Amino acid sequence: MALALVLLLGIGLIVFPLADGLPKKTQGVDNVQDTFRDAMSKEGLKTSREDLVTMQLMLAQLQGETLPALGARIGMNPQQTQQFLGARFDKVGAGLGQVDEIMPRFDHLVLVMEQQGQNFREADEIPTSHLPNTAVTYLFLIPGIILTVVGAAGLFFSFRRPGRSVVPTIALGVAVAMGAVIVVGTLVTDQIGKTQSAEKMFDAFRPTFTDEGYNRARTDLDVLEGMATQMQTEVIPFLATTAGQTPEQYTAGLASQYQDLGKGLAQLPRILGRFDGMVEDIGHNIESFKDADSIPTEDTPVSQVPWYLMIPGIGLIVVAGAALLPIGRRDGGTPSAPPSSGTPAGASPVGSAPRA
Q1: What is the enclosing helix (H) or strand (E) of 155?
Q2: Using CA atoms, how far apart are residues 198 and 121, in angstroms rounded to an integer?
Q3: Of the candidates 299, 26, 30, which has an alpha carbon nearest to the alpha carbon of residue 141?
Q4: What is the pLDDT of residues 293-316, one digit of tens each?
Q5: Which of 70, 168, 284, 331 could form a disulfide with 158, with the two C-beta atoms 3.0–4.6 Å apart?
Q6: Does the pTM of the predicted model rise above 0.90?
């Protein structure tokens, strides 16, 4: 019975990852982790926050100080100035009208990234920091193949040569050892804690990695990029001409008088390019994220996966180990049988005559 259980557990460990599509799903995990590893690093998150703050300060100074000052020079209040610019420069007008809604959404995205940075890095070490997530499939397949072979061999020799073969005993010993390796390995590498971190990360990013989430971010970024491009190529040259200066002279004057605006204008191409790459990475990894988020199934949290190894491992230790115990056994594992009578073996019954 113990050997039959070993065989069944071995077959189960082979069938589960293949039937569940684990190779494709774990490849999805690797795709997402490889793409966002730099952005989710401590340095990457620090850069994202600094870039976002630079944009926020630039836009705040543009709306709160620069535009009112420019309007005052031509006798307009801030609202009239914004309407004037919007009528002449459509993308700048659209951007100024939407930044109060757009920037909080990007702030939320960066905040979620910061909150999930540690969880991402812990999930990135499944199964270990030196192995890709696709190796998880082989954590099931390799023990499954070994257990299937030893379980089948043990059963074969236990029926063919009952009580006269050491193969069943060796097979049970291998099963106990394999169970111990599975349990200890799962605990030592903290697969339970890592998958719990992965589950929190999936929960947090699930709204982001959707077609709706990507399209919203893409539209927001297009508005910001359109506004930035038109400011650099049309608005500043127009204002510079009005002031009798070159665009370079006018930009230098703005930077001197409005430092947050000047810093933002100088860094805006790099910042928007970086966020553009991040948004496109989200769009390219929607399907990979769905695959990763469906481990082991769409309705089952990924934190249960280590128990799909732990429970068989514990079962192997208990059942195969119990079968190896020498309780009630002697002569190589053959169960001892009580004598048919109280007469010692080889003695004649009392009162019987010896043979001639």
Answers
A1: helix 136-160
A2: 9
A3: 26
A4: 999 999 999 999 999 999 999 999
A5: 168
A6: no
